[in-house]
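Q: Entry one of two.
A:
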Amino acid sequence: MEVIYLPIRKGGVVKKMNNKKAEMSFWEHLEELRKRIIYCLATVCAIAIFCFIFGLREVSVGGITLYYPFPELYDNINTLVFNQIRNDLIRDPRIQLIPIGIADPVVVQLEISLFLGILFGMPMIVYQLGKFVAPGLYPHEKAILIKTAFPATFLFALGCAFAYFIIIPFTIDFLYGFAFAMDIQPFLSLESFISFVIIFLIAYGLVFELPIIMVGLTRLGVVSAQFWRENWRYAFVGMVIFGAIVTPDGSGITQLIVAIPMMLLYVIGYLIAKRLQKG
């Protein structure tokens, strides 16, 4: 297959591009995107179905405890995950989880399945995204993308862990503390609890990606570090709006719990971008 070399940008940077990719039409790009999306959806659905219909059984081999999947509709992987989430995040026994609707337990199972599908399918999602955008990148851009892959994955996991172990338990204890002070028995909807947890995990995972995005755009030459400093007011307004969108209550407290860490991460991203640009 013919390969062409196109001289581009300053400094004599050369982009190596497959001729077929260079001549792809809009509809061919759209078809390529559709194919990548299908791969991602197939991966997520396969993992979600597995978590829904399989449980884990324990077996001891030579004194070592191992687990193997076994078909189990009720005591499945989703149920194990739910019980762990409940034990970790609802630390006060006075808070009672209740199903509001008859289908709530099934809806919760499906939500957990989908979340686990996205979580464990993330390597395939990232791989397919890379396959789609790689042909349109210059060699130095590909190098930057590869270098930021691990930090981005680490920061997403760190954001989820920060939300799971610190933010969500604090938020639940803080908000329901008012109910305890008023001598009211607090009941928490089963479906709203899981939705709250999943939304916060994903939101904080994405929030912790902010420095990587800022530094990456600066290193690619899309925006300068000065841009981040000059437009911080607009960024902070956007963070408050983002916090309002992803949080379920109207008190404004959880909105600020999301927005304030974003502001701190924005400052960190700006300082790193500024240092790299000077270097």
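Q: Entry two of two.
A:
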Amino acid sequence: MPKDKSKIKNKEISKPVIGETKKAVSLQSSFSFFLTEFRKCIDDIQKDNLTKVRELTSKKISDILEESGFGNSHKVIFLIQDSDYDIASNTLDDIYSAVKRGEKGKDILMILNSPGGYIGPAYFISTCCKEYSNLFCVSIPRRAKSAATLIALGADQIHMGSITELGPIDPQIRKLPALALGEAVEFIASISEKYPGSSDMFARFLSLDLDLQNLGHTRRIADSAVDYATRLLGTKKLPKSAKSIGQHLVTGYKDHGFVIDKREAELILGEAMIKSNTLEYELADRIYKLIEEVKLALWVVTKNNYSVNFVGDLNAIWFVRKEDN
């Protein structure tokens, strides 16, 4: 990848800088490298001493950053999590520590790939990245769902690719959509209205099974999600008002896992925010694929699956062996 600073500053390109053939060769050589190195320290890895794994992975990512030019022009931070991990208060602490280190006001590029988590820490992650940067960008190699989408809303630019997805930000209670509880009660009420004889049965059922405090809480936390989104979108140049976009992202989708691809994201948030197939996206894609190669190499040498929790700077990458294989 060329280090032309004018191209890095421009940040929008019509085609990926790295050709498909070059990427395929790079990935194969990375996998072979990790496979060879991990076999050398197999005893330590089997004892869950993954120090060498972390060091080798960090070094390879550092090389990618140096090659791309972003390692010098930006403060690059990482929030890459498998589904075993949530965005939580400790995630916020790690990101806050990372953005405070070094020069304040430098452009921040966050490589973001997460299934989501708690909306409070996600809101603070986004605001502190904006506070400590001149330009705050997120680049999403695959997915930034739920609370991770909320983080992206605070960015000046969101860099996406053909298989990148955002998602609705409707809150969850016990892994179920919070708003679905209220909709379920409305559905039961409609049945009772249609069949009056069933009303007593439903009333007894609800009195035994439904916590009215939870019912009220679901509406309040949904409203909070709209408010957080509205604050993060602020005075950005948007196709519609920040409030209406926040409302749409909370209540406009029936499924919490609904895929918001780059085309729909551009319709919702506009061309000023959504950038496609840029240098930033190519960087995130290379790093994501490299981490997947590490996990594959670990499986080949140990026959164990590993998850990643990479939050903060280059020294904050952790691979953890999964108990269920």
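A: Comment on entry two: Confidence is low (pLDDT under 50) at residues 1-25. The chain has two domains: 5-167+259-321, 170-237.
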